[in-house]
Amino acid sequence: MGAGALFPDPDQARAWLANELSKPDYQPSLYDRIAGALQDLLNWLTRNLRVGEVTISWILIVALFAIVLIVGFALTRLRRSHRLADADHEVFGDERRSAADHRALAKAALAEDDMSTVVIESMRALTSDLIERGVVPDLLGLTSREVVESAARRFPSFLPRLRAGSRVFDETRFGGRTPSGAQAEEMMSLDHDLSMAEPTGASMAGPVMAVPR
Fold first, then answer.
1. Sign of CA dihedral 18, 24, 25, 27
2. 154 CB contacts (<8 Å, ≥6 apart)?
3. In the chain, how long is the greatest CA-to-CA distance?
4. What is the pLDDT of residues 134-143, one digit of tens each?
5. Contact 179, 126 (CB under 8 A)
6. 162 within 8 A of 142, measured Cβ to Cβ
7. DSSP code at position 8
8. Which site in 41, 164, 178, 193 is 20 to 30 Å from 89, CA atoms measured?
9. Percent of the chain with pLDDT over 70
10. Does residue 170 have a pLDDT over 70?
11. How far apart, in whole angstroms, are the C-alpha atoms of residue 107 and residue 121?
12. Distance between CA atoms of 135 and 154, rounded to whole angstroms?
């Protein structure tokens, strides 16, 4: 090693190690702490069981482990919901295609039972169609929430379906969930019905901004 190498004494080394292990990355999660406590309880019960207490003790153990699994699942869903609520749900990726092209991709995915792609491409077709019709502004990084807000002003009767479709799209693309066949078909139907509808509400406030893609 070079002349400038650092050789800590044992006390310094222990202090550095303790400081490193105190960082959040090394701390157990709430789920891990609960599971560890239940494992300790299981070990204690196993060591202290008497013959007459076997049945009720094991029932208690199974019940406790079921509780910790439910709590862990609930915490995982809560964290994912928070991530979804805070994320910027951009509809398009690197390139926006025409509405017709996105619809073709959705139909091809439906033939292959790829429901996730059906939902994603149908939402993109819907958005692209609204941009082409001047209903939604052509902005870089356009999110599903912005699409719903713009579209609802011109098609107020579609608001419940738009919100539901936006939620399914976000959960599919950003939440890692696989939509059902019914959800995928509804997204395609929403795109079709909206493309055939005539605007009834107020127009967009301000000019439509066209951004090269």
1. positive
2. 135, 199, 200, 201, 202, 203, 204
3. 80
4. 998 888 788 8
5. no
6. no
7. -
8. 193
9. 52
10. yes
11. 9
12. 7
